[in-house]
């Protein structure tokens, strides 16, 4: 199974960009979450052991699975943002035809791509624990809830 993050919770901001989902990427970048990309998301379990990830829904809706097979199904739609701590498995289960998500990383970190692999688990957990808590929340900057919920 996937390692997930032993210390930090997933944060979901429902509808935070509902009035202007096109402003997601600019807000992420303004708060030092960059290296952004746009696409339909991945339909297989994967995680990033070397960085956290913000995912903002620019259009459409989807059902995603966070945390591996035994994880939580989340219904997300235009204007929602999910912030995944390093190591958190995620995949898209289904989506509307117009679904588009924007991904970004603290300080523009380049994410690695890991899938389920029992032989990598110990190394992955070590990497996950060494990823620092970001200085800013991707949505709210220096004042965001992330800074209170993610404390090591």
List keywords for this structure.
152 residues; alpha+beta; three-stranded antiparallel β-sheet; 3 helices; 8 strands
Notes on the protein architecture:
By secondary structure, the protein is of the alpha+beta class. The protein has 3 helices and 8 strands, in the order E-H-E-E-E-E-E-E-E-H-H. The protein has a 5-stranded antiparallel sheet with strand order 1-6-3-8-2, covered by helices on one side. Strands 5-4-7 form a 3-stranded antiparallel sheet, with no helix packed on it.
Describe the secondary structure blueprint for this structure:
Layout lengths: L10 E3 L10 H7 L2 E7 L13 E7 L1 E6 L5 E6 L3 E4 L5 E6 L4 E7 L14 H10 L15 H4 L3
Antiparallel strand pairs: 1-6, 2-8, 3-6, 3-8, 4-5, 4-7
Question: What order do the strands of the largest sheet run in, or round the barrel if closed?
Answer: 1-6-3-8-2
Shape: globular
Percent helix: 10-25%
Let me know the number of strands. Answer: 8
Please report the number of helical segments.
3
Computed over alpha carbons, the radius of gyration is 14 Å
SSE order, one letter for each helix or strand: EHEEEEEEEHH
Low-pLDDT residue spans: none
Mean pLDDT: 96
Calculate the terminal CA-CA distance, rounded to whole Å: 24 Å
Describe the sheet with the most strands.
Answer: 5 strands, antiparallel
Strand content: 25-35%
- Helix/strand structural class: alpha+beta
């Amino acid at each position: 199974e996937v390692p997930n993050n032993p210390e930090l919770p997933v944060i979901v901001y429902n509808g935070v960009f509902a009035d202007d989902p096109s402003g997601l990427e600019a807000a992420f970048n303004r708060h030092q979450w960059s290296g952004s990309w746009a696409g339909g998301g991945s339909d297989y379990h994967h995680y990033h052991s070397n960085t956290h990830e913000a995912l903002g829904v620019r259009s459409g809706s989807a059902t995603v699975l966070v945390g591996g097979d035994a994880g939580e199904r989340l219904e997300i739609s235009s204007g929602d943002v999910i912030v995944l701590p390093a190591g958190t498995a995620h995949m898209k289960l289904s989506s509307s035809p117009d679904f588009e998500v924007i991904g970004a990383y603290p300080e523009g970190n380049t994410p690695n791509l890991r899938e389920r692999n029992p032989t990598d688990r110990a190394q992955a957990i070590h990497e996950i624990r060494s990823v620092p808590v970001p200085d800013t929340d991707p949505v709210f900057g220096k004042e965001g809830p992330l800074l209170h919920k993610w404390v090591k």
